[in-house]
Design brief:
Length: 537
C-alpha cells in the first residue's frame, strides 16, 4: 500500500524536475546570447558563458541525470555561440562543459546519499582533478582545433599556431569562472527560498558557509592581484602593461602558481566551512536526539504509568479477592474448633491452629504488599519535616508496646529534612521498629538517631543505629529486598517488608539508603534526602 500511495507523488516530483531542468536549460540558452566580454585585444578576446550556472544548479540540486538534461536543452545554442567565438574550439569546449556539469552532478549525488561525506568530496575540491585534466586539454587539443579554424569574430587573423598568451588567458579564465560558478551555485543553494524551490531539505548554517567560500575566493583573487602588482612594479624590465604582467605574457609556471593561490584559498575555505558545517550538523543531531529522547521518555513514562495502574489494580484485586477465601478458611477453622473441639483429638486441633496461623500470616503478607504498593504511588507533598519529633513519637510508641523492656533511646534534637511528612514518618517508624526488634535479646539495648558529617556529594547523612543482633555484611545486598530475611521467623518476627518500604520511600525523595553491621555487634542504617530547590515526584 505504501508504494502504491507514493507512486503518484513520485511521478509528480519527477515530472516537476524534468520540466524545471528543461526550462533552466532554455534559460541558460538565452543568457548565453548575452555577450559577457571580460577582455578584447586586436588578436583575441575573452568571454564567459554565464548561462552554465543554470544546468550546474540543476546538477547540484538533483544529480547528474537532470544536470545532463538541462545542459543538453541549451547545448545547441552553446555550440553555436562557441563556434561564433572560438571557431573549431567548440568541438573540445562543448563536451568539456557538459562533462563538467555531469561531474559535479555525480559528486552531488554521492554527497546527498551518504550520511557523512569527507571534505575531499566537496565540489570545490573535486573541481581540482577535473580542472587539471581540462586545462591540459586546452594547451593541446583546444590549441590545435583553434589553429585549424581561427575565431571568426576577426577574419584578419591568420593563425598557424595559437599564441601562448591567449591560451594562458583562456585557461586562467576557465579556472576562475569554474570556481565562480560553483561558488554562485553553492551560495544560491544555501538560501531557504531556493532550497524550497528545488524541494531540498533545510540546510543548517548555509549562509555562513556561502560567506566563507566567497571570502576564500576573494582571498585567492587578492593574492593573485598582489603578486601581479609586485611583478609589475619590481620586476617589469620589459615595460609591459599591468594586464600583460598579470595574465597575458606570463610563463606557464607563474600562471600555475597564481592559479594555486585561488585553489589553496578555496581549499582553506572548504576546511573552515567544513568545521562550521560539522558543528551545525552536530547541533542538529543533538537537537534531534534530544527530541527523540524526550519522546522516548514520554513513551516510557506513559508505559510506567500504565504498569503502575495495572499493579495498583492487581494489588486491590489481591486485597479484595483473596481476603474473602482467607476469612472463610479462618472462620470455618475457628468454627470447627469451637463446635467440634471435644470430638477432635489434640493432633487435629494442632492442624487447625496451624491452618488459622497460616491464613492470618497470609493476611499480613497481603497488608504488607498493599503498603509497599502505596509507598510507590502515594502523592507527595514537600515541606520541612521535624525528623527528631517523629523519632521521639515512634520511640514513645515502642515503649508503650513493650513496657517490660529497658531500651535507651538517643535521639538528636532539632534534626529536620525536606520531604513528605507521612512517608518519612513511615520510613523512620520502620527503621526504629527494626532496631527495637533486633535488639530485643540484648541487655542494655541502645537505639540512636542522628546525623553524621556530610558525604562526598555534600548531603547530610542520617542514621539509625542499634547494638542488637546485627547481620553478616556478605548478605547486605539482600536487606532491602521484599520478603528477604536474614534471621528466622521464630527468632525475630516479621515478614521482611519493612526495609523494602524504607528503600522505596528514600528513593522517592531522591536519596539513597544503605546499612553496615556485624553479627552480634549491632547494625546501622544510613539514608540521605535530596537537597535543592526542586522537588521530585
Amino acid at each position: 500500500m505504501k508504494d502504491k500511495n507514493n507512486q503518484p507523488a513520485n511521478r509528480q516530483n519527477m515530472l516537476y524536475r524534468l520540466i524545471v531542468s528543461v526550462v533552466f536549460g532554455l534559460i541558460g540558452f538565452g543568457v548565453n546570447f548575452l555577450n559577457i566580454e571580460l577582455f578584447e585585444s586586436p588578436t583575441f578576446k575573452v568571454t564567459v558563458l554565464v548561462g552554465l550556472i543554470f544546468p550546474l544548479l540543476i546538477a547540484q540540486a538533483w544529480g547528474w541525470r537532470y544536470g545532463l538534461l538541462s545542459a543538453l536543452a541549451g547545448g545547441c545554442q552553446t555550440m553555436w555561440w562557441l563556434w561564433h567565438t572560438n571557431g573549431y574550439g567548440f568541438l573540445y569546449a562543448v563536451p568539456v562543459f557538459t562533462l563538467w556539469v555531469v561531474w559535479h552532478g555525480y559528486w552531488a549525488d554521492r554527497r546527498r546519499k551518504a550520511d557523512y561525506s569527507p571534505w575531499y568530496h566537496s565540489a570545490f575540491v573535486m573541481e581540482i582533478p577535473f580542472r587539471i585534466i581540462c586545462e591540459l586539454g586546452f594547451y593541446t587539443i583546444f590549441c590545435w582545433l583553434v589553429s585549424l579554424n581561427p575565431p571568426p569574430w576577426n577574419p584578419s587573423i591568420t593563425w598557424t599556431s595559437v599564441p601562448l598568451s591567449w591560451v594562458n588567458t583562456v585557461a586562467a579564465k576557465h579556472s576562475i569562472t569554474a570556481y565562480l560558478l560553483l561558488l554562485a551555485a553553492h551560495v544560491l543553494l544555501s538560501f531557504a527560498p531556493v532550497r524550497r524551490f528545488f524541494k531540498l531539505k533545510k540546510l543548517s548554517a548555509g549562509r555562513l558557509v556561502g560567506a566563507i567560500y566567497v571570502g576564500a575566493l576573494l582571498m585567492g583573487a587578492l593574492l593573485w592581484t598582489v603578486d601581479s602588482v609586485v611583478s609589475f612594479f619590481a620586476f617589469n624590465t620589459q615595460g609591459q602593461t599591468f594586464w600583460e604582467v598579470a595574465v597575458l605574457n606570463v610563463s606557464f609556471h607563474v600562471l600555475f602558481m597564481r592559479n594555486m593561490y585561488i585553489l589553496v584559498s578555496v581549499i582553506g575555505g572548504v576546511f573552515v566551512a567544513r568545521f562550521f558545517t560539522e558543528r551545525a550538523r552536530a547541533e542538529a543531531e543533538l537537537a534531534k536526539y534530544r527530541e527523540h529522547l524526550e519522546e522516548l521518555v514520554g513513551e516510557r513514562t506513559a508505559q510506567l504509568e500504565d504498569a503502575n495502574k495495572e499493579l495498583e489494580a492487581f494489588a486491590y484485586s489481591v486485597s479484595h479477592d483473596l481476603r474473602a477465601p482467607l476469612r472463610a478458611i479462618d472462620g470455618f477453622s475457628q468454627a470447627l474448633l469451637e463446635d467440634y473441639g471435644p470430638t477432635i483429638d489434640e493432633e487435629g486441633q494442632g492442624h487447625l491452629d496451624r491452618v488459622r496461623a497460616g491464613t492470618q500470616r497470609m493476611g499480613w503478607l497481603i497488608d504488607d504488599l498493599l503498603q509497599l504498593s502505596r509507598m510507590s504511588r502515594a502523592e507527595m507533598r514537600y515541606e520541612t519535616v521535624d525528623l527528631s519529633a517523629i523519632a521521639e513519637e515512634a520511640a514513645e510508641e515502642l515503649r508503650r508496646g513493650g513496657p517490660e523492656r529497658k531500651v535507651e533511646f538517643a535521639i538528636a534534637p532539632g534534626l529536620t529534612g525536606r520531604g513528605d511528612a507521612n512517608l518519612l514518618r513511615v520510613a523512620l517508624v520502620n527503621l526504629l521498629g527494626n532496631a527495637w526488634k533486633f535488639s530485643a535479646k540484648r541487655d542494655g539495648a541502645r537505639i540512636e538517631f542522628g546525623v553524621e558529617i556530610e558525604d562526598k556529594e555534600g548531603q547530610t547523612v542520617y542514621f539509625v543505629r542499634d547494638n542488637g543482633a546485627g547481620f553478616d555484611m556478605a548478605f547486605a545486598d539482600k536487606l532491602f529486598g521484599a520478603f528477604q530475611r536474614l534471621h528466622g521467623a521464630s527468632e525475630f518476627p516479621g515478614e521482611g517488608i519493612g526495609l523494602a518500604t524504607v528503600q522505596r520511600i528514600i528513593r522517592r525523595h531522591g536519596g539513597r539508603v544503605w546499612a553496615t553491621g556485624a553479627v552480634d555487634k549491632g547494625a546501622a542504617f544510613y539514608f540521605t534526602l535530596r537537597t535543592g530547590a526542586g522537588d521530585l515526584e
